């Protein structure tokens, strides 16, 4: 007898469109007006762009953080990757930090520490928040304890790192 694979949360492109709009509406309804939307690469880039458009915020920055190396496989601690954002670009700004999911929350925690002492105010927004996250996000579209299949990362890459198409 084999164990069945755990049920996954599946986010389709259509559902993503609805969810990102509802998340943006929650930010707007709260009265928070970000000067900067800061997307955490890679998973938070698409949600950050969507929120920036929906909130009419033209200042969209990115910060690269690596933590996950595969399904339920991660580094010991999240690490920032170059090119590095100049934290002084956030000075006295209200910043909305956006990611796809707050799983452990440690990536968001690292970015919050990076913003500390620079941003006038910082809030966090994610599509999904998991119950064991060390960060309680200001805005979360849904809460789940399941692994999430995002439409932008479910399929394998179409090329290998060498730039040659896989056969």
Key terms:
167 residues; alpha/beta; Rossmann fold; PRTase_dom; glycosyltransferase activity; glycosyltransferase; transferase
Quick description:
The chain is built from three helices and eight strands. It is of the alpha/beta class and 167 residues long.
Calculate the terminal CA-CA distance, rounded to whole Å: 34 Å
Q: Strand-residue fraction?
A: 25-35%
Q: Structural class, from helix and strand content? A: alpha/beta
Helical percent range? 10-25%
How is the largest sheet built, in terms of strand order? 4-3-2-5-6-7
The number of helical runs is: 3
Q: Which CATH architecture?
A: 3-Layer(aba) Sandwich
The CATH C-level name is: Alpha Beta
Domain Phosphoribosyltransferase: 11-155
Organism: Microlunatus flavus
Keywords: Glycosyltransferase, Transferase
GO molecular function: glycosyltransferase activity
Describe this structure in words.
The protein starts with 8 loop residues before the first strand and ends in an 18-residue tail after the last strand. The chain has one domain (9-149): Rossmann fold, CATH 3.40.50.2020. The chain is globular. The mean pLDDT is 89. A six-stranded mixed beta sheet has the order 4-3-2-5-6-7, with helices on both faces. It has a two-stranded parallel sheet with strand order 1-8. It is of the alpha/beta class and 167 residues long. It has helices spanning 13-30, 45-54, 106-115; strands at 9-10, 36-41, 60-70, 73-81, 94-102, 121-129, 139-143, 148-149.
